[in-house]
Amino acid sequence: MNTAIDPTLSQIQRLPRRFRLPTGTTLEDIDPSMSPEQVLAAFVPNYPYLANATLGEPSEEAGALVYSIRKPTVQTKGAPGSREKKRVADTIARLSNWAGTPQEVSRTSAWKAVFDRCRHIAEEAPSPVKSAYLPLV
């Protein structure tokens, strides 16, 4: 509970709560009767990233309990998982086979073979255009 005992008054005083955003901005408590998590949820319309944020342990600063708000950990949506890594490896193997390179060679050799095959195709003289395709050109 966020209370402190003042020995001179012999009564319990409730410390005001504040919430510190990762940007350094401090937000005042909107309702002391709400739990800190409920207050955090109330700030979500103005600060959408708080929907996935967590509260740190409160610390006393200048006669108030200050809760630090931690941003959610960054997750990369495009990071390849095991299934994606397998698909990439399969694609490299197919490209290597298409380029005429056996799979047992290193990745560098495989990519060099793919590059050489693509360069060879790009340097070939263009095939004549069939007359049936002329309206499309």
Sequence-ordered SSE layout with sheet pairings:
Elements lengths: L2 E4 L4 E4 L2 E4 L5 E3 L7 H7 L11 E2 L3 E3 L2 E7 L11 H17 L8 H17 L14
User: How far apart are the first and last residues' alpha carbons, in Å?
Assistant: 77 Å
Largest sheet features: 5 strands, mixed
Extended strand count = 7
H/E element sequence: EEEEHEEEHH
Tell me the strand percentage band: 15-25%
Helix content: 25-40%
The low-confidence runs, each spanning 5 or more residues with pLDDT under 50, are: none
Radius of gyration: 32 Å
* Whole-number total of structural domains: 2
Number of helices: 3
Helix/strand structural class: alpha+beta
- Give the overall average pLDDT: 75
Q: Could you say which overall geometry the principal axes of the C-alpha atoms support?
A: rod-shaped
Question: What does this entry look like structurally?
Answer:
With 137 residues, the chain is α+β, with helices and mostly antiparallel strands. It folds into two domains: 13-70, no CATH class; 82-124, no CATH class. It has helices at 36-42, 82-98, 107-123; strands spanning 3-6, 11-14, 17-20, 26-28, 54-55, 59-61, 64-70. Helix 2 (82-98) packs across helix 3 (107-123). The longest helix has 17 residues, at 82-98.
